[in-house]
Every structure is written in C-alpha cells, then in structure tokens.
Design goal:
single chain; mainly alpha; Regulator of G-protein Signalling 4, domain 2; two-stranded antiparallel sheet; about 65% helix; RGS; RGS_sf; RGS13 protein; RGS_subdomain_2
Amino acid sequence: MTPNTCWLCKIFRAEENGISSKVSLEEVLQWSQSFEKLITSKYGPMIYKTYLKTEHSDENIEFWLACEAYKKITSQRKRISVARKLFISYVQPQAPNEINIDSPARKAIIKNIQEPTQSCFDEAQRIIYMHMERDSYPRFLESKFYQKLKHSLQTNGNNSMVN
C-alpha cells in the first residue's frame, strides 16, 4: 500500500458496511464527462457521497438515491411507509437531513403524502439533482479529493485500486 492510496482505503473502510471496492481509472475518468455518468456509475455515488460529507451536504445524494429506490416500490403499503420516512427525514421543515427545495415542491409533497404515488417525490428529486449538478459536482471535480483519486489510479499503472 502506497501512502498515495491509503486515504482512499480509509474512506472505503469507513463507508457503509465496510465496502471493499475496486475502482477503475476508466470509471473515475468518466465521472468528469457528466454528472449523470458519476451518479449512475458503480462506485460514483459512494465516492461522491463521501465527498459531500466533507461539504456537509450528503443529504442530497442520500435523498436522490432514496428516491430512486422509492420509485421501484410496487407495494402500496410499503410505498406509504417509505414515503413517510422520506418526508420525515428529508422534506418536513427542520427534518434531521432537510433538503433545500422550494416551497411549492414541499407543499406538493405534503399534499400527496397521504396517498403517495410513485412520482410524488419527482419534483424534489429533480431540484436536488440540479443543485448537485450545478453546485457540488463542479467542486467535486476540482477537489483534492477527486484529483488525488484520479492521480493515484494513474500512477498505479494497473488502472485499478483494490482496498
């Protein structure tokens, strides 16, 4: 283990369930092409979330990912339960992980939360996606965090890094 890669190993060990990962240089380079490539790649969301923690805005990616999972729920009973959890955690005023959305989007969710549909968080999710794409994503690409990751993979020569 070289000193250049040690910081990344610590991040992976600290991440959810001690995920042991292999990140390729190709994947990391694709992240700079578009925010969508970052957020839909295998390890991008986890790495981006770790970066957002340094900005104290990881609730954005958590909410966005939770909305992606929410849309796949087919059981109305489970949808109601998960919708309420999303509302309590992210949407209601003074929520523990309150997201930054406008009043009309918040009011629409409040109105629809009693009988939530698959799409009741779509507008809030779109707003959060735009916040991340416009604000934190450009900072992520310029950050020492991303630059060190890219550099460590480029200097390893094997195009991958194992935790």
